[in-house]
Amino acid sequence: MKLKTALLGAAAVAVIAPAAMAERGSDGHLNIIYWQAPSILNPYLSGGTKDLESSSLIIEPLARYDQDGALTPWLVDEIPTVENGGVSADLKSITWKLSDGLLWSDGTPVTSEDVKFTWEYCTADGGGCAQIEKFNDVVSVDTPDPQTVIVHFSVPKPFPYGPFVGAQAPIIQKAQFKDCMGAKAPECTDANFGPIGTGPFVVTEFRTNDVISLEANPNYRDPDKPAFATVTFKGGGDAAAAGRAVMETGEFDYAWNLQLAPEVLEQMESVGKGKNIVAFGTSVERILVNLTDVDPALGDERGTIKHPHPFLTEKPVREALSKAIDRALLVEIGYGSFGRLTCNVLPAPAVYASTANDDCVNQDIEGAKKLLDDAGWVPGPDGVREKDGKRLSVVFQTSTNAVRQDFQALIKGWWQEIGVEVELRNIDASVFFGSDPGSPDTFQKFFADIEMFTNNFDGTDPEAYMSNWTCGQIPAPENQWQGNNMPRFCSAEYDALRAEMAQTGDINERGRLAKAMNDMLMQEYVIIPLVYRGRNAAHSNTLGGVIMNVWDSEIWNAADWYRIK
């Protein structure tokens, strides 16, 4: 128990310095640009970062992770631990106490019933919840009084901070969403596009995949915040235009995810109107390999585990694809000092970073060819390998972005060199990372053979993140394509490791289990890591209070932003 308690006691409480502002709304208008446009303001119906972050201005969790990865109270006054009695001695429950006087933006009280409802909403039968892993092992939520929430787990949870913590698991209002349970969830357009929240801003208009207009929340808990009276949250375009809009023209105050070549960013910053900011967290640009058949002839069963992929289920093929890639060149041309080599999907913190896959840093074209030769894939007349009437021909999709298209072109060349035919597809980022279960082009539906994007996780503990590749997380029509296991990987051994980690308190043992899960994914080549990416953005020289945060929503402290006069 001593080791378990030590882990829980590490839930440090961060103190955020007050911003230099006068009173609510006194600094006028704020302009934010995300070149991947938000498509919904309900993170339970979308795994897209653009949707999680835009939502974070409006709806909030009980606790967040600060810029150093420490847990900090948000809608509560204290982080529950074993030491303060908030976590039970048997580690099977955690008790949260809401802060006094919390109001929703419509002026009604925030109560424990709203918190309980959030769990019920995400886990409702017949629905698809993009953040279901946050509620792993929760069996019930009690509300003994309006301010007290007791979360009960089916097993001891040495790290009980999954539910209601971080931007991926905010609280939603029961009164607004009570008729939006299960299969009805995507139909509640008014709620999904304009949630009532506790955050610093409220939605006045939302044009999906375009622009969000917001104003200061009149019932925000700090009467002097936010400093900005109104916000325009513009979406769309591309990373270059977003960077120019902040650092060259000064049209916008903040630009997110400037996925641009290093020399381009340096040139923009040299104009003198804004600055680049970057920090390394857990973001990895990766390739995912689809283990299911996406032939349109399969109709409603396309991309489901009922139909294995005709050749990507062969491990030598997947391994050959990985060996052929020159990751060092990708880092150099795509990210420079904003990128690092990695052979893991879990690159940090250090206690969780494996060294078992480090040979991926060296490109091995001849080794890739030998793998395919030994597996019986023979080059045909046009150089494309064939076996049993099948051709090694793949569709490789990603979002539209200059760096990603450069990566696609290079990877296509390397794969053609080993005898793989490649068709490239790029999809508008607002659609690719969108939430429409009817769209064939989302990254979760994955109607292609190969896809590429970046992902990360809230906080510094990877338990919920590694749950993404359990069997129950496979996207399917039954969960409205909301699962996070895009490769459709399923392993009883992997699931057992996840279950063991959920009950393990010793930090070194947690590290061992996380590494084992990472290594299984890497050595099965269902995920092919490319670059450990720094998270970068830009803000105007006149925007104060910005603190880059790679462990939560990047704009987590927007209530503290102010205009430098």
Secondary-structure map with pairings?
Layout: H1 2-9, E1 29-34, H2 49-55, E2 63-65, E3 71-73, E4 93-97, H3 112-122, E5 138-145, E6 148-153, H4 174-177, H5 189-193, E7 201-207, E8 211-216, E9 230-235, H6 239-247, E10 254-256, H7 262-269, E11 274-289, H8 315-323, H9 327-334, E12 339-340, H10 365-374, E13 378-379, E14 385-387, E15 390-391, E16 393-399, H11 402-417, E17 421-427, H12 429-432, E18 450-455, H13 463-466, H14 492-502, H15 507-524, E19 527-540, E20 543-544, E21 562-563
Parallel strand pairs: 1-9, 1-10, 16-17, 16-18
Antiparallel strand pairs: 2-3, 4-6, 5-6, 7-8, 8-9, 10-19, 11-18, 11-19, 12-19, 13-14, 14-15, 20-21
Describe what this molecule looks like in 3D.
Helix content is 23%, strand content 21%. It has helices at residues 2-9, 49-55, 112-122, 174-177, 189-193, 239-247, 262-269, 315-323, 327-334, 365-374, 402-417, 429-432, 463-466, 492-502, 507-524; strands spanning 29-34, 63-65, 71-73, 93-97, 138-145, 148-153, 201-207, 211-216, 230-235, 254-256, 274-289, 339-340, 378-379, 385-387, 390-391, 393-399, 421-427, 450-455, 527-540, 543-544, 562-563. It is globular and about 75 Å long. Mean pLDDT is 93; it is low at 1-21. Helix 6 (239-247) runs parallel beside helix 7, helix 8 (315-323) packs antiparallel against helix 10 and helix 14 runs antiparallel to helix 15. The protein has 565 residues and is an alpha+beta fold. The termini are far apart. Strands 1, 7, 8, 9, 10, 11, 12, 16, 17, 18 and 19 form an 11-stranded mixed beta sheet that branches. The protein contains 15 helices and 21 strands.
